[in-house]
Amino acid sequence: RVLYVSSQNVSTIFPAFANRLEYSKQEKKIVITLHNLWKNDSDIYVCAGVVKNSSFLSVNRSGTMMLIKEVEQTDCSNSSWGIYGLIITLALLFSTLICCALYRVYMKKYSQKKNPNAVYEDMSYSSRRNTLVR
């Protein structure tokens, strides 16, 4: 047993499926969703109705067979470490590229010949000869 819905729309979820079942009802249609299935949940599930004032049980259809297999859990943490490593590596390469570009700009700027703010006097012999007083 999974779910019982009375004619007064009172529902009872059986303990084996507590917190693992969701259902919605629209007119004559009930949709049941089961979560976190276990291997021992494998069975044939049928929808059955009980007629009032009778012990007669009517089954609408042949039922649904659910076979639950154990699924091996894959550890996703290893692949996420690879992605994190790739992101960190790309960030380091990008920052290194920026640092190299800035270093080159600053080196170019400081290695250029600057015009000094100084006055030079030509002290060569030829220029002094003309200024000698006789």
UniProtKB/TrEMBL annotation:
Lineage top rank: taxon: Eukaryota
InterPro entries named in the record: CD7 (IPR039090), Ig-like_fold (IPR013783)
One BP annotation, GO: adaptive immune response
Keywords from the UniProt entry: Membrane, Transmembrane, Transmembrane helix
Residues in coiled coil: none
MF terms in GO: signaling receptor activity
Presence of keyword Repressor: no
Gene Ontology cellular-component annotations: membrane
The keyword Membrane is annotated on this UniProt entry: yes
Membrane-spanning segments: 81-106
Name recorded for this polypeptide: T-cell antigen CD7
Source species: Balearica regulorum gibbericeps
